[in-house]
Automatic annotation (TrEMBL), chain A:
InterPro entries: NDUFB8. It comes from Sphenodon punctatus (Tuatara). This is NADH dehydrogenase [ubiquinone] 1 beta subcomplex subunit 8, mitochondrial. It holds the Pfam family NDUF_B8. Keywords: Membrane, Transmembrane, Transmembrane helix. Signal peptide: none annotated.
TrEMBL record, chain B:
GO terms for molecular function: NADH dehydrogenase (ubiquinone) activity; NADH dehydrogenase activity. Its main location: mitochondrion. It catalyses: a ubiquinone + NADH + 5 H(+)(in) = a ubiquinol + NAD(+) + 4 H(+)(out). Core subunit of the mitochondrial membrane respiratory chain NADH dehydrogenase (Complex I) which catalyzes electron transfer from NADH through the respiratory chain, using ubiquinone as an electron acceptor. Essential for the catalytic activity and assembly of complex I. It is found in: Mitochondrion inner membrane. This is NADH-ubiquinone oxidoreductase chain 5. InterPro entries: NADH_DH_su5_C, NADHpl_OxRdtase_5_subgr, ND/Mrp_TM, NU5C-like, Proton_antipo_N. Residues 72-121 form the NADH-Ubiquinone oxidoreductase (complex I) chain 5 N-terminal domain.
Length: 167, 604
């Protein structure tokens, strides 16, 4: 009985080409398409291991940019310490002369400006609390009990009966 | 057991109107007919039915009609279905149904090539039912059912094009922000359930003065739903959904649910100064910030979304002024012109091959005359030009602000927002409609008759509803009758100033090349709020959590506490005692001598 033994050896040794080519026999069942040397390994101790980890077939980084996590038994191995920001946003890159800045929105943020804006709002509300806006109040036109006494009247006195007709 | 009080024509007709909307949802399954026409027809008939009830209410002057059906009754706590058909409900229902009728006409055209168009219309109808449940409920529990219903439908409709990553992100953002607000609502439910033992609004209104905690929780719920400052990013992301969704949910109905909640529960708030001040200041900062951001946006839908947020801030400010009726009037009038603006923007962008950048539009007043006319009317109404619909409510609000005793900062921010509103509406009119066409030349531009009827209906509403509503406003408080000329003309002056300044800048920009400016970037990036709050705090929190987990759980518990600790101590001990096993006689003699001396000392 013959087994079909399809295995393709890629000419280039990069991760991307090796991922797309079958490097194991057809009947071999693997969990992922990655071979053992593509997976993260132990902390690199020698310069050769350092360069191999940074190389294009492992993490595809330059040796100068490659920096693993410190070897403190945290289980990171030789996985690179990538900067703590998303890879999915457009950020400030050197722009081409013909690049139209009005087509693409670049991610900018400035904590100082935001807090300055909030501070301005709080300042406005504080000034508004000290100096509220109101309409000026005039003298009341409704006679009060006090003003009747002051004018010599007597609020308890009944008004005189007015006769509107004469018979 | 059904307990009924006052089965009146208004009661019956309102319940029948709500039931009319259930028919298309069931008929599609039973009869396999097209959902589009059924939904539109049902909404149209429901509108006429609710309009009849509104006219009856205005003529007969009946204040409240409620129907109570007990669902759960215990010794001291009853929960049931109860409907309140008062001025607010009877005014809002025909407004929402009229707007939905026009939007469904537009959606029939906009979503014509969508494969799941029946499902889309069903979602719109379910949303409408949830909204009507919200506005007609007489207890907090039923209101919460409607509240959650509109939130869920918003999530489903924003993420309609589910293969788009941005749409999925936007819908998640919307539901998470709404959920943060629901914390406030649930807190109020818990507080009232514990302290008042009732969720009926009539019983809650009898309890005065009300505690501050549940009221502030209600303000949080309203702030999240109505996209106030701090909870506003979801409204801009919601523009990822189809334009009919933006027109219905995110301009006229769902986003005003928060404001409606505060209007409905205003009797609880009117004596609490802290709550009213919170509403005033939150509304002022929201209206100013969103108006400032709308000045520098270039996406037509984003500009209209920010204008919606600005008007919602104005409504919140009005509630802070203790004028819920005025806020409600602005809410209803705003629905007409804002939904019309969204529909017009959808027609324009759909005709220009989904181009939403206003810098790439222009010259459409010749190719789309009806759409551009209606767009202009909507913008003028939004700016508060005299005798358009927006003027009646906006002018009244600004007059009331100027003649009230309030925080000067809030007043100045609101006036500045009015100026900016006029400025960005002018910019929108000029850049979208006038000038040479800046879009791709070979475009098939159509103005369907049904579409034109939809926006013309809303245009009629944008012009005529203002004076009609102002005449029929529920006069519960004495309106200010004596204001000085300066106060009377302040709103008009602010609007004119905004228009003139905008015209000057539009004219100048034609000559000068746009330059990068820090203030412009700050406004365009929406005050950096999203980029500062969405990424950094969550990333740092997750990283700290990961560090705590790996350090505490993995490293400390699994390694250092037992296995490595034991191995280290054992190693130290064995290294220390290894000299005993080296086979040296002097070691054995030393051990023997020391143990003998120890024994002698212990025994003596």
């Amino acid at each position: 009985m013959e087994f079909e033994h399809w295995s393709v050896q890629s000419k280039s040794n990069t991760v991307s080409t090796r991922l797309h080519c079958r490097v194991a026999p057809l009947w071999a069942q693997s969990v992922s398409g990655l071979s053992k040397d593509m997976l993260p390994g132990p902390y690199p101790k020698t310069p050769e291991e350092w360069a191999a980890a940074a190389a294009a077939n492992k993490y595809n980084m330059r040796v100068e940019d490659y920096e693993p996590y410190p070897d403190k038994d945290m289980g990171y191995g030789d996985y690179p310490k990538l900067p703590n920001r998303s890879q999915h946003v457009y950020r400030s890159l050197p722009l081409h002369w013909d690049f139209d800045p009005y087509l693409w929105t670049q991610v900018n943020n400035s904590l100082t400006t935001f807090f300055a804006f909030l501070g301005f709002m709080v300042f406005m509300f504080f000034i508004g609390y000290l100096y509220p806006s109101y309409q000026p109040w005039g003298q009341s036109s409704i006679l009060t009990m006090t003003s009747i006494w002051e004018q010599g009247g007597n609020p308890n006195k009944k008004p005189p009966k007015v006769k509107h007709y004469e018979i | 057991m059904i307990e009924t009080q006052w089965i009146t024509p208004i009661n019956t007709m309102m319940l029948a109107s709500i039931s009319i909307l259930l028919y298309p949802l069931m008929a599609d399954t039973l009869f396999k007919t097209s959902m589009k026409m059924q939904a539109r027809t049902a909404v149209k008939y429901a509108f006429f039915s609710t309009l009849a009830t509104l006219i009856m209410f205005i003529n007969l002057g009946m204040e409240i009609n409620t129907t109570h059906i007990n669902l759960i009754s215990s010794t001291n706590f009853n929960v049931g279905l109860s409907f309140k058909f008062d001025y607010f409900t009877l005014m809002f229902c025909p407004t929402a149904l009229f707007v939905t009728w026009s939007i469904m006409d537009f959606a029939k055209w906009y979503m014509a090539h969508d494969q799941e168009v029946n499902k889309f219309f069903k979602y719109l109808l379910i949303f409408l039912l949830a909204m009507l449940t919200l506005v007609s409920s007489n207890n907090l529990f039923q209101l919460f059912i409607g509240w959650e219903g509109v939130g869920i439908m918003s999530f489903l409709l924003i993420g309609w094009w589910r293969t788009r990553g941005e749409a999925n992100t936007a819908s998640m953002q919307a539901i998470i922000y709404n959920r943060l607000g629901d914390i406030g609502f649930i807190l109020t439910l818990a507080w009232t359930g514990t302290n008042v033992a009732s969720w009926e609004l009539d019983q809650l209104f009898m309890l005065k003065p009300f505690d501050t905690l549940p009221l502030l929780a209600l303000v949080l719920a309203a702030a999240a739903k109505s996209a106030q400052f701090g909870m506003h990013p979801w409204l801009l992301g919601a523009m990822e959904g189809p334009t009919p969704v933006s027109a219905l949910l995110h301009s006229s109905t769902m986003v005003v649910a928060g404001i409606f909640l505060l209007i409905r529960l205003h009797p609880m708030m009117e004596d609490n100064e802290l709550t009213r001040t919170t509403c005033l200041l939150l509304g002022a900062i929201s209206t100013f910030m969103t108006a400032m951001c709308a000045l520098t946006q270039n996406d037509i839908k984003k500009i209209i979304a920010l204008s919606t947020a600005s008007q919602l801030g104005l409504m919140m400010t009005t509630i802070g002024l203790n004028q819920p009726n005025l806020a409600f009037l602005h809410m209803c009038l705003h629905a007409f012109f804002k939904s019309k603006l969204f529909i017009c923007s959808g027609i324009i962008s759909h005709n220009l091959s989904n181009e939403q950048d206003i810098r790439k539009m222009g010259g459409i007043h010749k190719t789309m005359p009806i759409t551009s006319s209606c767009f202009t009317i909507g913008n003028l109404a939004l700016a508060g030009i005299p005798f358009m619909t927006g003027f009646y409510s906006k002018d009244a609000i600004i007059e009331t602000m100027n003649s009230s005793t309030l925080n000067l900062g809030a007043l100045l921010l609101t006036m500045a927002a009015t100026v900016m509103t006029a400025a960005y509406t002018t910019r929108l009119i000029f850049l979208v409609q006038t000038g040479p066409p800046r879009h791709y030349p070979m475009q098939k531009i159509t103005e369907d008759k049904t579409l034109s009827n939809a926006i013309l209906r809303l245009s009629l509403g944008s012009i005529a509803i203002g004076p009609i509503s102002a005449m029929t406003l529920d006069q519960t408080q004495t309106l200010p009758t004596t204001v000085t000329t300066l106060i009377k003309l302040s709103a008009l002056g602010a609007t004119m100033m905004g228009i003139f300044v905008s015209l000057i800048f539009i004219h100048k920009n034609k000559q000068n090349r746009p330059q990068k400016n820090n203030l412009s970037t700050f406004s365009n990036m929406l005050t950096f709020y999203s980029s500062l709050t969405h990424r950094s705090p969550t990333t740092h929190l997750l990283k700290k959590a990961q560090k705590v987990s790996t350090t505490l759980n993995d490293a400390t518990w699994y390694e250092y506490s037992v296995p490595k600790f034991f191995s280290k101590t054992q190693l130290k001990m064995s290294k220390a005692l290894s000299f005993l096993a080296q086979g040296k006689v002097k070691t054995y003699l030393a051990v023997f001598t020391m143990s003998l001396m120890t024994l002698i000392i212990l025994t003596t």
